[in-house]
């Protein structure tokens, strides 16, 4: 049993889980997927297409005829991690195709690893398939190699990411995601709903809605309506929440990457009604108006506190998670202290934090007043200590309460790892049940009485 550590990268997806075994003689492809949940969805789409063409999916290097490395380019440390993964795949397999965000910089990759077979950019599915076809020609058996209706999934069977758009219209100075993934491109609402219906039909109990800017969903297509569904985040959330009733089960719908635009308040009644989980993942990034201006982000932290108070008034059970950057160029001790004071007032439930890093191509690199590394580390330590104290106090208040949880895992000793409605997989906390779990299965949603609390996790007994 592992507890949730305070230094988890809040941008990372769960580790991809490959469970299929290729048949003898079947061309097989391996996949290494790095980065955020949006990249994991890209990996699922690529593997689904390959599976439909008769390729097997290998869980290890030795069983694969070629390996796709789906890279991340979010931070320089993530780029280094991607280069390391490419190098490992080359050493272990030798036939490597690179895709993903770092693929937008092909010379950067081939300069370090000239032996890769091909490099493609983010969500360039056709180019990835062309590269696979060239490296490993397909050889399907039409009587055996059939694609499951729900496609290839790299998450556990009971939850799934649902990507509703690509790209981003923001111009944050520290971020190059729009340069790599382009401007906002929303999917038609009816296509999103149809995918969600298929996932629910296949046994998914929790839908994790993701995009680069979930609040802006539909803006680029003028909130078009088709087949009875409108491309607006409020309408989409309502439609997704209604799928649970249609399926006759308790479906959890969780919203990630929600910018605090004014219309977000329209989501809160849906949470109070139980249509979607009372959970908002909002990337505030900082609280001092001068720091936010240097980031080229909205600088209305005080009004944000008013919004948070209104959300909690209308839905007292709402859980708020966010990510922040410390050590941004020009950040003074006074600005950092403002962030700590804001955190004390906001009392967010779940918090992640990055130390600022330069990223090639980001406009923040040219800003004056870069903060020394030791100061960044000190501020990160102080920020996380403050966030930890808030988390510990909030969880202590949960002792004695009855909470609904979803079962993620049951280990060999019968200890169940579960999550409450306030916890997203991998990035938030867990609730552990260490007795009476014999009748539980992964994906069950059950009621638990909390009997112990830690800094990030809870323990409880079944009720």
- Say what oligomer this is: single chain
Radius of gyration from the CA trace? 22 Å
- Number of E strands: 20
Secondary-structure class: alpha/beta
Low-confidence runs of at least 5 consecutive residues: none
What fraction of residues sit in β-strands? 15-25%
How many domains would you count in the coordinates? 4
Order of the strands making up the biggest sheet: 2-1-3-4-5
Shape: globular
Distance between the termini: 22 Å
Q: What's the CATH architecture name of the largest domain?
A: 2-Layer Sandwich
Predict the CATH topology of the largest domain.
Answer: Transcription Regulator spoIIAA
**Main beta-sheet annotation:** 5 strands, parallel
Question: What is the arithmetic mean of pLDDT?
Answer: 88
The proportion of residues forming helix, as a percent range, comes to: 25-40%
Q: Report the top-level CATH class of the largest domain.
A: Alpha Beta
Number of helices: 12
Structural features, described:
With 463 residues, the protein is α/β, with parallel strands linked by helices. Helix content is 32%, strand content 20%. Helix 11 (333-346) links the parallel strand 14 and strand 15 (350-355). It is built from twelve helices and 20 strands. [4Fe-4S] cluster 1 binds at residues 36, 72, 101. Its cofactor is [4Fe-4S] cluster. Residues 27-137 form the MTTase N-terminal domain. Keywords: 4Fe-4S, Cytoplasm, Iron, Iron-sulfur, Metal-binding, Ribonucleoprotein, Ribosomal protein, S-adenosyl-L-methionine, Transferase.
């Amino acid at each position: 049993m592992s507890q949730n550590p305070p230094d988890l990268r809040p941008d990372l997806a769960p580790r991809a889980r490959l469970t299929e075994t290729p048949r003898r003689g079947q061309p097989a492809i391996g996949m290494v997927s790095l980065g955020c949940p949006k990249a994991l969805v890209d990996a699922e789409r690529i593997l689904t297409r390959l599976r439909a063409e008769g390729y097997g999916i290998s869980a290890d290097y030795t069983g694969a005829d070629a390996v796709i490395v789906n890279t991340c380019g979010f931070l320089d440390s993530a780029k280094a991690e991607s280069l390391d993964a490419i190098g490992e795949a080359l050493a272990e397999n030798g036939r490597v195709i690179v895709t993903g965000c770092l693929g937008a910089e092909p010379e950067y990759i081939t300069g370090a690893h000239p032996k890769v077979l091909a490099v493609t950019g983010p969500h360039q599915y056709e180019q990835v398939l062309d590269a696979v076809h060239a490296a490993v020609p397909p050889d399907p058996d039409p009587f055996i190699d059939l694609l499951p209706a729900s496609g290839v999934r790299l998450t556990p069977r009971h939850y799934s990411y649902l990507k509703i758009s690509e790209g981003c219209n923001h111009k944050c100075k520290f971020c190059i995601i729009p340069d790599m993934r382009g401007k906002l491109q929303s999917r038609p609402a009816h296509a999103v709903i149809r995918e969600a219906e298929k996932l629910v039909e296949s046994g998914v109990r929790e839908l994790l809605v993701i995009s680069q800017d979930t609040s802006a969903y539909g803006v680029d297509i003028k909130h078009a309506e088709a087949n009875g569904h409108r491309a607006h985040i409020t309408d989409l959330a309502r439609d997704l929440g209604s799928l649970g009733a249609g399926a006759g089960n308790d479906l959890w719908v969780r919203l990630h990457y929600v910018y605090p635009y004014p219309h977000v308040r329209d989501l809160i009644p849906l949470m109070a009604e139980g249509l979607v989980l009372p959970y908002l993942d909002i990337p505030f990034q900082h609280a001092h108006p001068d720091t936010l201006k240097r980031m080229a982000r909205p600088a209305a932290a005080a009004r944000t506190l008013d919004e948070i108070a209104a959300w909690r008034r209308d839905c007292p059970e709402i859980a708020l998670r966010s990510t922040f950057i410390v050590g941004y160029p020009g950040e003074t001790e006074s600005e950092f202290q403002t962030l700590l004071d804001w955190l004390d007032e906001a009392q967010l439930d779940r918090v992640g934090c990055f130390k600022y890093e330069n990223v090639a191509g980001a406009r923040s690199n040219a800003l004056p007043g870069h903060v020394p590394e030791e100061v960044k580390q000190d501020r990160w330590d102080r920020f996380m200590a403050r966030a930890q104290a808030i988390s510990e106090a909030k969880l202590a208040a949960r002792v004695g309460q009855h909470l609904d949880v979803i079962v993620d895992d049951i280990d060999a000793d019968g200890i169940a790892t579960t999550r409450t409605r306030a916890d997203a997989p991998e990035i938030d906390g867990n609730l552990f049940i260490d007795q009476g779990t014999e009748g539980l299965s992964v994906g069950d949603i059950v009621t638990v009485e909390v009997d112990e609390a830690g800094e990030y996790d809870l323990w409880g007994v079944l009720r």
